[in-house]
Design goal:
This protein is α/β, with parallel strands linked by helices. The protein is 38% helix and 19% strand. It has a single domain (3-244), classed as 3-Layer(aba) Sandwich (Carbamate kinase). Helix 6 runs parallel beside helix 8.
């Protein structure tokens, strides 16, 4: 195969962290995990991996249990957050099973020890798995209450030295208003971290954005329901919204 035919040559990234919301896995069910969404997502992750890109994943747990919502109803916030972390483990195991059904070697690494189900999170081990071509799913958030899976995604991306965070959503990117409510909502192609914080835009929570800003970790927000979007971003196509320091 000549160099010009190399499918890896045009990749803009070599290692990325994909952030998925738990709600993304529920599809049209309204709760739980939709097997069809898992299958579709797994195929797309496999295609990305076949491009030679190392893939890490963080999944939320909102399709099963949301700690913040429970705490507003009187539950102790720390207890509610720990329950939410366990929900992310359920989602991670489901995605691992779906990926391995199509021959994608996957490791789930949990911030909370549960040896019978998954490996403990160890940075060096996670990096080694990625170098060996395994998809790594980081479960249980940061292992601490009061921190979201957005913050966990930012933290893990920085720790494993990912090139960027890919934030999957159900809309085309970041808008100035809710596009489901206002047909005139404007889609941003590029934003700085400071703009996101000052405008209160719902990209990721403020702790996550601040972590990315301090460490120069770009965030690409895109519509995961459009097949092939992840691959398009990897190959340099301008899809969705990029959050960065405007250094390019």
């Amino acid at each position: 195969m000549s160099k010009d035919d190399d499918p890896h040559k045009s990749n803009k990234f070599s290692r990325v962290l994909l952030k998925l919301s738990g709600e993304a896995l529920q599809g049209e069910l309204g709760y739980g995990i939709d097997p069809n969404v898992l299958k579709s997502l797994s195929k797309e992750i496999k295609e990305v991996q076949q491009l030679g890109v190392e893939v890490a994943i963080v999944i939320g747990g909102g399709n099963i249990f949301r700690g913040v919502a429970a705490s507003t109803l009187g539950m102790d916030r720390a207890t509610a957050d720990y329950m939410g972390m366990l929900a992310t483990v359920l989602n991670s195991l489901a995605l691992q099973d779906s990926l391995e059904r199509i021959d994608v070697t996957t490791r789930v690494m949990s911030a909370i020890a549960m040896q019978e189900l998954c490996e403990p999170y160890i940075k060096r081990r996670a990096t080694r798995h990625l170098e060996k071509g395994r998809v790594v799913i980081f479960a249980a958030g940061t292992g601490n209450p009061f921190f979201t899976t957005d913050t966990a995604a930012s933290l893990r991306a920085i720790e494993i030295q990912a090139d960027a965070i890919f934030k999957a959503t159900k809309v085309e990117g970041v808008y100035d208003k809710d596009p489901h409510v206002d047909a005139n909502a404007k889609l941003f192609k590029e934003l700085s971290y400071i703009e996101v914080l000052n405008r209160g835009l719902k990209v990721m929570d403020s702790t996550a954005i601040s972590l990315c800003m301090d460490n120069g970790m770009d965030i690409y927000v895109f519509n995961m329901t459009t097949p092939g979007n992840i691959k398009r971003i990897l190959q340099g196509e301008k899809i969705g919204t990029r959050v960065c320091n405007f250094r390019n």
